[in-house]
Amino acid sequence: MEHQNLGRTGIKVSRVCLGTAFRGQKDANVCIDVINRAIDLGCNFIDTALYGEGRSETFVGKALEGKRDDIVICTKVMGSIGNSPNHTGLSRLSLMRAVEDSLRRLQTDHIDLYLLHAFDAKAPLEETLRALDNMVRQGKVRYIGCSNFRAWKIMEALWISDVRNLEAFICIQNQYNLINRHELEPDLMPLCHEFGLGIMTYSPLAIGLLSGLFRRGQKPPANTPWSKDELQGLSPGKYNFEDAMTEQVDQIVQTLIAIGEKHRKTPAQVAISWILDHESVTPILGADLPEHVDEIFGGLDYKLDSEERAVLDKVSNPEEIRKYA
Question: How far is the CA of 311 from the CAs of 44, 153, 227, 240, 304, in angstroms?
């Protein structure tokens, strides 16, 4: 397993991060087996959050018993468990409660990377950053970052941290895949390269659309999010399979299949290789079974050549996808 520095920091993380939302797995023991399998294969970077009302963090905590110091834990916050108005958002009150709850579920005394899960327009950004700064100074958090922030809000946060001498973001987390390039590439990617922020990306297979199991004009496989309508769309309005699997997306899938057949790799492995071909980008790879981990990690030895990268760049060009959307 290759490792790289996370953004401008000295912390070294595996080239891929294991996502532990486990939306398709209800068996706690299997979830723990998935985490341990990824660690056995060299992954030292695990992403979690308040998924399943804290279920995900609890599983991570149990799996890391006896090996906590070897693993970099990333978790995210946008409130805490509870029904009162002050259990939501990024106020100091909500954040301080949430971090204590996460530490307890994770069975640890510190969180390596703590991300704001989304922007909260109702909480002053300086209040949020001061609360995060306090957590770092108290030793409860090592590094901070954000997820799903717009570029100008990240810049505002960096400016506040600079002029107020507060701990600053070192990492962002956003969706990125061959179907969704427009969210990251135009502004966020150059910003991160300019200021030394690490880039974590989720949904590398676009909720499975890039796995090769889904094709245009065919019924989606049973027991998948696309067959159950249990998903948040790839982009505004794309909440069902027929709308999401456009002609252009199907062309991307066919290209992944063709390239994979040349190298005895699955379409999913090729799609992930395309993300890994971007400097300093760490994809978050979700898995619900240990064998899913084996498949994903089994493709990490494959690297796209320049021609294959060019073909995938062309077929997934955001302007082309927009024409078909």
Answer: 32, 34, 30, 27, 10
Backbone dihedral angles phi then psi of residue 73, each to the nearest 5 degrees: -100, 130
- Give the C-alpha separation, 217 to 215, whole Å: 6
Q: What is the largest CA-CA distance in the chain?
A: 56
pTM of the model: 0.92
Confidence class of residue 158 from pLDDT cuts 50, 70 and 90? Answer: very high
Backbone phi, then psi, for 223, in 5-degree steps? 60, 35
What is the spatial distance between Cα 315 and Cα 324, in angstroms, rounded to a whole number? 12
Domain count, the chain: 1
Of 176, 185, 198, 183, which Cα lies nearest the Cα of 272?
Answer: 176
- In whole angstroms, give the CA distance from residue 284 to residue 115: 14
How far, in Å, are 42, 119, 224 from residue 170 at the CA level? 23, 16, 35
**173 found inside a domain:** yes
Among 62-76, 106-120, 253-267, 293-307, whose mean pLDDT is lowest?
293-307
Which pLDDT tens digit goes with each residue over 215-226?
A: 888 888 877 777
What CATH number does residue 45 fall under?
3.20.20.100
H or E element at residue 63? helix 55-63
Contact by Cβ (8 Å): 211, 267: yes
Q: How far, in Å, CA of 233 to CA of 230, rounded? A: 9
Report the catalytic residues. 51
